[in-house]
Amino acid sequence: MNASKPDSIFASVSEFILLGFSFEWQIQSLLFSLFTTAYIMTITGNSAILCAVWCDQRLHTPMYIFLGNFSFLEIWYVSSSVPKMLVNFLSATKTISFAGCFLQFYFFFSLGISEGFLLSVMAFDRYLAICRPLHYPNIMTGYLCAKLVTVCWVCGFLWFLIPVVLMSQMPFCGPNIIDHIVCDPGPLFALACTSAPRIQLLCYTLSSLIIFGNLFFMLGSYTLVVVAVLRVPSATGRRKAFSTCGSHLAVVLLFYGSLMVMYVSPGLGHSAGMQKVATLFYAMVTPLFNPLIYSLRNKDMKAALRKVVGLFSTR
Of 154, 248, 278, 295, which sits with the fewest C-beta atoms within 10 Å of its C-beta? Predict the structure, then answer.
């Protein structure tokens, strides 16, 4: 353990060891190749959607503007944790500085919370488009669209700021080994020299509020959408509405299913292996599949992506 001796009663940890997935070297190399490929595919897929929304005038509508922001957010979200994970696969020490650990913690959570808010906004947008189609152009204006996106980013980066600051002020005297793939509040609380039940309660309360609040809002929105779609007399109209909302709902279930396992039920005492798998699922697997979910069943997006590929291939 790398520690210094301040004047306080506790030794101060200056770095942590992120164990991540600890296997034999051959398996580590295989996982490195697999995760690197997945990371590149995630960045490429989300960048393609972002370019498609940016380049195609037909996609300059609220739904696709939200989707473009979502893809941009996903790029940064996956980049807040995966590069360090990849480095640790090839590292013998697997260390991360004290400041680096809490910065990763802050950005990983803030981007994830922003993603939750943005998913709720996307659900609200679909509710207005399907349940209030005549009023939709007057309600979801460009100004409101920009305002909602800004609120998602600002609220996401403010939501967990105080808990992160409070946790960074806690004494850590060793050991400094985090049996996880990211700097997560659970292992950090376990490494603290003194218990902090109030800060711990604050963290899990804020986590539960953001997860359940957004989840119930989205489920309520999609329930109203389903009721409205079932009243549509045209079978073609029903299929189109269900296709659009089905993509959103699939992303919501993928993202929030794994999140609830981790942060809503801390008292269940999940094993370290289960925590790593659940975190890997919403930190890497979900961002990987999002471009496929949103583009495969959307004719406008597929046409825009072909246009973007054509532009780059002619250069």
Answer: 154
Kindly indicate the confidence band of residue 163, based on its pLDDT and cuts at 50, 70 and 90: very high
Q: Is 137 helix (H, G, I), strand (E, B) or coil?
A: helix
Helix, strand, or coil here: 23?
coil
Q: What is the DSSP letter of 59?
A: G
SS3 141: coil
Round to whole Å and give the CA distance between 10 and 112.
33
DSSP strand E in the chain: where?
Answer: 3-4, 12-13, 15-18, 95-97, 177-178
User: What's the predicted TM-score (pTM) here?
Assistant: 0.86
Rounded to whole angstroms, how far apart are CA atoms 265 and 271?
Answer: 13
Buried b / exposed e along 130-149 (16+ C-beta atoms within 10 A): bbeeeebeeebeeeebeebb
